[in-house]
């Protein structure tokens, strides 16, 4: 099952390409794709829905990055959104914004992250004796 999910994710990169500078890209763009990927792409194009799995290797942000990066854009939205109360949606968006802002405030800088998790190794000094 996971193999099929990874396969779909990888094929999406090639199938959704707009490149045309070599025959391989035209082949990939027009090749038959697995039904599972066709279903995922259709859901995204019609409802802006990303198929996700509890334990999938590629999470929703990864799928979105490929969809948007390859210009696979949704033409509609999930019809369930029309039944939601506007004030509740607005309240949820405020909560999301607050969570993102809290995360940003507690995040290390890029330099601090690198220093902590992948510090640069200092090469040993070169001396005349070592040459």
Secondary structure blueprint with pairings:
Layout (H helix, E strand, L loop, with lengths): L1 H14 L7 H8 L4 H13 L12 H10 L16 H20 L4 H8 L14
Write structural notes for this entry.
This protein is an all-alpha fold. It has two domains: 2-79, no CATH class; 84-120. Helices cover 56% and strands 0% of the residues. The chain is built from six helices and no strands. The longest helix is centred in the last third of the chain and has 20 residues, at 86-105. The model has no long low-confidence stretch (mean pLDDT 91).
Q: Tell me the helix content.
A: 55-70%
Mean of residue pLDDT? 91
Number of helices, counting only DSSP H or I runs of 4 residues or more: 6
Query: Which of globular, elongated, flat, extended, rod-shaped describes the shape?
Result: flat
The first-to-last residue Cα distance is 56 Å
Question: Strand tally, please?
Answer: 0
Query: Which stretches are low in confidence, meaning pLDDT under 50 for 5 or more residues running?
Result: none
Biggest β-sheet strands, sense, barrel? none
Rg: 22 Å
Strand proportion: under 5%
Helix/strand class: mainly alpha
Task: Supply database-style keywords.
single chain; 131 residues; mainly alpha; 6 helices; 56% helix
Q: How would you concisely characterize the structure shown here?
A:
The protein contains 6 helices and no strands. The chain has helices at residues 2-15, 23-30, 35-47, 60-69, 86-105, 110-117.
